[in-house]
Structure formats: structure tokens, C-alpha cells
């Protein structure tokens, strides 16, 4: 008999709430790992009291940073400042 951890149950609730569908158990496991990593980062950020906002779980919480940046078409900008007047 396999016991489901609290984290496992939390992820099942997330999958259900946002209607997530994965192609196989491998993807499910990868997404669960990303979700738990992002959830920990959210908790860490929210523990800081120097911000006027709180982060939360949303439909992108099982996405990697790279996937989210690709969605936003994020490109690092390089800025060149001239020191001449």
C-alpha cells in the first residue's frame, strides 16, 4: 500500500483545481517537482515582510522558469550607457 504525502495531496488538489492533464506519469512527476519547488519559493517570498504584496499559486505554478519566460517572450536586455556628454 502506498501512502500519499501531504505534498502529494496538495499537488492532486492543484491538478484538480486547474484541470491539468499530463501525457504520462513521467510528466506528472516532473510537473509535481516543479510545482513543489515553486510553492517553496512562494512561501519563502511571502515570509518576507518587506513587500506590499503576496505571491500565490496559479495555473502556471507547475511551469519552469524557462517555460514561463518563453510564454512572455522574455529576452534579457543589455543596456549600454554612454559616459560622454
Topology, element by element:
Layout: H1 6-18, H2 25-47, H3 65-72
Summarize the structure.
The chain has helices at residues 6-18, 25-47, 65-72.
Describe this structure in words.
With 85 residues, the chain is mostly helical. It has a domain at 23-65. 52% of the residues lie in helices and 0% in strands. It has 3 helices and no strands. The chain has helices at residues 6-18, 25-47, 65-72. The mean pLDDT is 89.
Strand content: under 5%
Query: Unreliable runs, pLDDT <50, ≥5 residues?
Result: none
Give the quaternary arrangement of the chains: single chain
Structural class category: mainly alpha
From N to C, what is the helix and strand string?
Answer: HHH
Number of H/I helices: 3
Largest sheet descriptor: none
Which of globular, elongated, flat, extended, rod-shaped describes the shape? Answer: globular
Total count of strands: 0
Radius of gyration, CA atoms, in whole angstroms: 18 Å
Quote the distance from N terminus to C terminus: 74 Å
Q: What is the mean pLDDT? A: 89
